[in-house]
Amino acid sequence: MRVIDSRTHTIIGLVVGVVLIVAPWLLTFADESDAATWSAVGVGVFIVLNELITTSPASPVKLVPMSVHLILDMVTGVFLALTPWFFGFADEDWFVWVPHVVVGILVAGYALMTRADEPAITGPRTPA
């Protein structure tokens, strides 16, 4: 069921990206694992940049079609959820790796729940 419109998706994505960027210090795992820190920061930066270039009405630069963006979000979410195993920090304390898994699943989930319908481009109306 696709209940999220592209504008709302972009706003959610920007918030998630910024939260990922600050998460290592907010959740205090920055001192525990460099791999966990930089994977969260890297994915957060990617999400923010990716949200800023979609065809969503809330994006300032309209380069990537929303349908392509949603696929990238799903891949990004799965990647983030698997980073504890990819980068070897799954054996750390739970507060180091669990946020990556949970947020990754949520990113893929809200991508699956977003409508990819492109906004109609309308120009000024001219009399017929």
Write structural notes for this entry.
- The chain is mainly alpha-helical and 128 residues long.
- It has one domain (6-112).
- The chain is built from four helices and no strands.
- It has helices at residues 6-26, 34-52, 66-86, 94-112.
- Helix 1 (6-26) packs antiparallel against helix 2, helix 1 packs antiparallel against helix 4 (94-112) and helix 2 runs antiparallel to helix 3.
- The radius of gyration is 17 Å and the shape is elongated.
- The model has no long low-confidence stretch (mean pLDDT 92).
* Topology as a string of helices (H) and strands (E): HHHH
Largest sheet: none
Tally the beta strands: 0
**Strand pairing plus helix content: what structural class?**
mainly alpha
Distance between the termini: 40 Å
Q: Number of helical runs?
A: 4
Shape: elongated
